[in-house]
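thread: overnight batch results

M.L. [08:02]
morning all. the overnight job finished for the chain we discussed friday. pasting input first so we're all looking at the same thing
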Amino acid sequence: MKTSKLSWVCLAATVALTPVGALAGQPAGPPPAPIDPQYLSPPTSKRVTDTSGINGVWETWLGRNDPAHPPSPNIPPAPLKPEYQAKVDATARANREATAKGLPPTTAWSQCLPEGFPSMMRSGSFAVEMLVTPGQVTMINELLNQVHRIYLDEPQGRIGEVEPVFFGHSVGHWEGDTLVVDTIGVKEDALFRDTPHSDQQRIVERIRLISPDWLEDQTTIEDPVVLTGPWKFTWIMKRNNPAKLQEYVCEANREYDDNGAQRLRVSR
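M.L. [08:03]
and the structure it wrote out:
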């Protein structure tokens, strides 16, 4: 006897909807228990605008049009050892020469790569969203959708043993109203202000509100291989609720590497 195509479809649908126990000749088990309401998000149509913590969208404060609030202090030069300072000077010189020739400098930006950490915390005019959830603080920069995850109250790995990644391995804890973040394992080619670093680098941040709409991020970078001492600076950030981050994807990059020289494709 031939079986029609429709019969096969009906049979397949029956099997797909039949509990596994019934297919094995056993009675089907009880239905799953309903989800406890405490684990369901409360119904709401409004975005969270709570200003009692660091949740929200922040922008690096450069002192624009507001003399009442001082801007972020200038970041001092890194206390580099002489051999590494020479590398920074050579990179700056090469970038100036490329610019003079009308060529884009060879940077992570021109290669469509993430800036990495801590650069993503101060990406020009691009905002950073901070999300505090149980056990984790997540920071998202609008530029290239960069994501930095901080795991709370967890042990840190060992310097030189964790796998290097763009945003490092970050753990944090709260000391009163201050979030203390320890970051290691940033990829050595993820540079902050074109400054080299080694796998021995450690970045410690102390993040706190200085008022409901103003945030301070005190940052200390240590690297016994590259630096002569701690590199310290402070960022001031201004709350920008209810701003929403927009998608920013580097999908139409026209710059490319031509045997060590950066070129720019021009449409014809």
